[in-house]
Structure formats: structure tokens, C-alpha cells
Write a structure and sequence with these properties.
Tumour Suppressor Smad4; five-stranded mixed β-sheet; 12 strands; immunity; TIFA; mainly beta; globular; FHA_dom; seven-stranded mixed β-sheet
Amino acid sequence: MTSFEEVETEETVTCLHLTFYHPCQDEKMVFRCLDFCKREQVRADEMAKFGRDSSACRYNLMDTRVSRIQFSLQFYRKLHTSEHGFEIKNLSKKTKLTVNQTELGYLNKIDLPWKCIISFGDYQILAEVQEGESVDYFETHLHLAEAPILQERCLPCLPSLQPIPENGISPSIFPSQGKSPTEIDENEL
């Protein structure tokens, strides 16, 4: 056999892409300790912690409004399947964490959707999971957003904040032309 035939089969690696946004990044440089250039390997049995405390957190956010440990991500294999996932847990006693429309209080945890927006305070993080096969480790790939993520992307999991009237016609379609709403008796129609 040749050396090529003896090489172990390569496994694909699950990668968690995280795109960060904060409105004051240019002034405060809150992400200055994050490495946006390359993928980073994280052992499967480690928790990826995000927060202000560099001795406890793998990913540091340089902001006094961020908790010592803000939240964690835990990689796991789903029961009776070969699928992998991530669990997100809020570790801040002072700040609620929102994952899409789900608000997490202190020590609350949920499965991280394959594509979602994590937010707390002025922070917005777009998380996207790229599935892989490896059970020994996963990778993180950090990105920096130039514009707010909630305005930049239209995710199907985020409902429109515009209420829809019972007739199903959005009022934004018709200009109001300065008129105030008036009631009409159904007999006048």
C-alpha cells in the first residue's frame, strides 16, 4: 500500500460561524480581543464561554456592561442520532439573552437553531451552524459586521414587527395623505 492509502479518512468538522455587531465598535473596540482572521478549534468537551473575564472566557468582549461570563455554547451529539448541535446558556445574572424571539434568564438554556440571532444589550450576533462529522472537536469562525445584523438580514425566523390588519392589506401600501382614520357604518358601504 502507498502512504496515501494508509492515511486516515478525513472527517468534516462542524463549524459555528459567529458574526458580531455592536454600534460603538469603532469607538470602543469591544471586539479587539476576538480573532476574526481564522477558524479556531474547540474540543468537544469544552464550553465556549463569552464574556468580560479573560481568565474564565475563551471569547472576550471588552465592555464593562458585559457580564464576567455572559453566555456559553456547548457542543453535543443528539440522542440516538449522528447529528450534532449546540446548546446556549445565559450565565449573566443581570442581562437577559435573546435567541431569535426566545428570552433566556439566568441559567436558562435552549438548543441553538442552525441560524439565529443572539442579542443582549447593544450586542447582536448572527450564529450559523455548518454541520460536520467530527465528534472530537468543532470550529468557530468569527466575523465582524459593518451594519446592524437585525437590519442587514431578513431571517425567516424573525417575524415582521408591522401588524397586519384583519382585511390583510398592509396600511403602508396606501399613503395616508394626511387623513385621520374615520369610522364608517357598514350600512354606508
